[in-house]
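Hi all, posting the design record for the shared folder.

TITLE: backbone redesign
STEP: 1 of 1
STRUCTURE INPUT:
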């Protein structure tokens, strides 16, 4: 089994047929790859559609569980996967026709732990290439180098992972939170000894207006602090001293992503609650101060003297032409 495609499915009846059809239309025989759908307690017709599309597919498996979230669904899929490589695909997205053989061939030839691919992002008839790193094409580097050069894309479907690399390092998604990809991807890339990149669009990321990332939800801002704390704990035991400033850049991005959430949240009590929660995390201000980037260090210095974190963040944006949150969207 060359590759396992793991698809968490929750109330995506409008999109799952497109997703599954793209996974089926591949130039590999059914015994060379598998499609694992984890139905995460869907309440619409997602399960019925998935069953119909995969009805005659010997390499497709549908597993139903109670609703536990995308992290639990992915972890469940990983626990039963048999492929040499793993590809996490979201139910409202799709992959390029006849691309798996190419991706697997390159990953296998280079013997990489992670193979990152390029992706397209949009909706309707308009899709744009999200990123391009031609200078990394054809090379094999450590995941640390991708982190230091800020080439890492935290959206999990933009990478194909060697299954033994994930299992041997006990790499799973953190349950019950939004932005689980931020936490998972940074740990994965830091531990990866061999990473490659293919500068071709193999993944199509649909800008779903009903996805959880498009809905204003204060939990996202609180969960990003959970992500930042989890990554900080990882850095204490696993990240070498000379790598920490670069690793801290990405933790700082999670903190700034949390602050950015409050552009759309108007409830003053929620803002105050978040600021009080963040104020308890003194070590996260230290992370900002020890970042390799001046903008985060400046932010950390201001945070040390003033507790109005959201106001300070918004003020600093007046001097920052490029947004702090220039990264792949998450679902």
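Okay, here is what came back for every position:
SEQUENCE:
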């Amino acid at each position: 089994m060359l590759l396992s495609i793991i698809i968490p499915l929750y109330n995506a009846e409008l999109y799952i047929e497109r997703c599954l059809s793209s996974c089926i239309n591949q130039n590999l025989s059914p015994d060379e790859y598998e499609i694992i759908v984890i139905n995460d307690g869907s309440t619409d017709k997602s399960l019925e559609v998935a069953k119909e599309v995969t009805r005659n597919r010997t390499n497709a498996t549908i597993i139903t569980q109670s609703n536990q979230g995308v992290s639990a669904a992915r972890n469940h899929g990983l626990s039963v996967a048999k492929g040499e490589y793993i590809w996490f695909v979201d139910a409202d997205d799709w992959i390029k026709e006849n691309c798996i053989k190419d991706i697997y061939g390159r990953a296998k030839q280079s013997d990489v732990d992670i193979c990152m691919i390029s992706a397209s992002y949009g909706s309707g008839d308009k899709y744009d290439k999200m990123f391009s790193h031609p200078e990394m094409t054809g090379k094999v580097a450590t995941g640390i180098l991708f982190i230091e050069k800020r080439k890492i894309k935290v959206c999990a479907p933009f990478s194909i992972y060697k299954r033994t690399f994930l299992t041997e390092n006990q790499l799973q998604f953190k349950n019950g939170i939004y932005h689980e990809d931020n936490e998972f991807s940074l740990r994965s890339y830091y531990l990866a000894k061999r990473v490659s990149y293919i500068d071709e669009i193999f993944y199509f990321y649909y800008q779903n207006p009903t996805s959880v990332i498009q809905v204003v939800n204060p939990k996202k801002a609180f969960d990003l602090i959970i992500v930042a704390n989890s990554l900080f704990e990882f850095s204490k035991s696993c990240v070498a001293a000379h790598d920490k400033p670069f690793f801290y850049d990405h933790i700082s991005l999670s903190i700034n992503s949390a602050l950015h959430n409050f552009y759309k949240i108007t409830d003053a009590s929620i803002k105050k609650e978040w600021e009080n929660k963040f104020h308890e995390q003194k070590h996260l201000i230290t992370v900002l101060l020890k970042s390799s980037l001046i903008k985060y260090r400046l932010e950390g210095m201001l945070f040390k003297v003033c507790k109005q974190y959201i106001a300070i963040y918004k003020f600093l944006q007046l001097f920052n032409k490029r947004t702090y949150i220039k990264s792949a969207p998450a679902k």
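COMMENT: The chain is about 45% helix and 20% strand.
Let me know if anyone wants the other runs.
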